[in-house]
Specification:
Layout lengths: L1 E5 L7 E6 H8 L2 H10 L3 E6 L15 E3 L14 E3 L21 E6 L8 H14 L5 E4 L15 H8 L2 H4 L2 E4 L7 H9 L1 E6 L8 H8 L3 E5 L15 E4 L2 H14 L12 H18 L13 H4 L22 H10 L6 H21 L7 H11 L7
Parallel strand pairs: 2-3, 3-4, 4-5, 6-7, 6-9, 7-8, 9-10, 10-11
Antiparallel strand pairs: 1-2
Helix pairs in contact: 3-4, 3-8
Amino acid sequence: MVFELKKTQETLPGLLVFSHKEYIKFMNTRIGNHFIKELKKFYFIGVHWGYSTSNPIENNNIDIHFTLPGLLPEGYAQSSYIIPLTTRNFMPSTFKIEDYSEKEWDVITIGRKVKIKRYLEFFLIVKKVLKAKPDTKILIISPEDEFPKKSTFDYLFEENYNQIFSEEEKKQIQIYSKNTYIKQKEIVQMLNRSKTFLFTSTQEGVAKVTAEAAMCGLKVLVYKNFIGNATYGISNDQLYLYKDINDAANNLIRFIEEGETFTGNLSLLKEEDSLIKLHEYLDIFYSERELNYDRILNSNDLRNNLNSFNRTLSEKIVLGNSNDIKNLRSFLAFCELNSLDVSITKKLAVFFYDIVLLFKEAYRKRKNFIPLFFWKVHRRRTQYDRLSI
């Protein structure tokens, strides 16, 4: 992803923000660094971190890291400026409490049908809730990827669902898993028509979905040893950290019965408050470099633009409908669009380097070549070992 947060003016450098994906994939290569230095003639370079990592490479050519506590190791990137804002901090005002006299669902969760979402654990928690409170209504929004990866897709979702729940219990559960885009307005309505949000992942990045649920007034339950920012910005009275399946189920029942809507201070998550902070951070950053910051930013929809959800670049150089740069050749094409000199020699060098990176990526994802049958057998044997019980 490359997002032009600030355009370059005649005497004022702009600000380009890349994602952690480009940073890890090619920005730390020799030739990638060469063109980062070239871009720095016109822009400051930032990286937005949307996931947690323990051992990232440090790159002195990066001017700003957009990150929250827990995403990067303590003391990392001391040569760069840290702005503690990510997409999680820019929840638009459309995520708000709406007045519904009746709640349709007692428990809701939202997450793609992938292993990291830990739907087996979600099912087991809900099973205990249904045993104690059979009239509980559950909504699962789990859209499937168009091209799922064997190493990450939850191929046991339906199998576990059918084995764990009886036909009577299934009548209490509504599952939305089509490969279609759900409008933001619909998500807000579904959240507002629910009482509690159960989040069973154990490691992600900014985990915006818990912020969205909190903005809509739901009680949010998160695993207590979660790695990432799923709890960031949510007040203690609206948040519950469960220690295991029984703890989650018992307290979920309690919160459902209480049926409280929360209206606490969520200023760390709100777009309007975070935009003020962003200007303050950038004012300091530019002032330290003896530049007068003019407060002119491309600040529209930072919740999606900072992590490449909106495509603004040519489809020839990005992946699908995102703004994710495909490879080094695409990065060079982006540099050419920014009037950098890209010689034939450099293009040839990048072509061969991309082949090397392609083989490295294929090796890293070698598990995807394992036949699906063996994936399922292995996961059936090991999936219960990973539960928080």
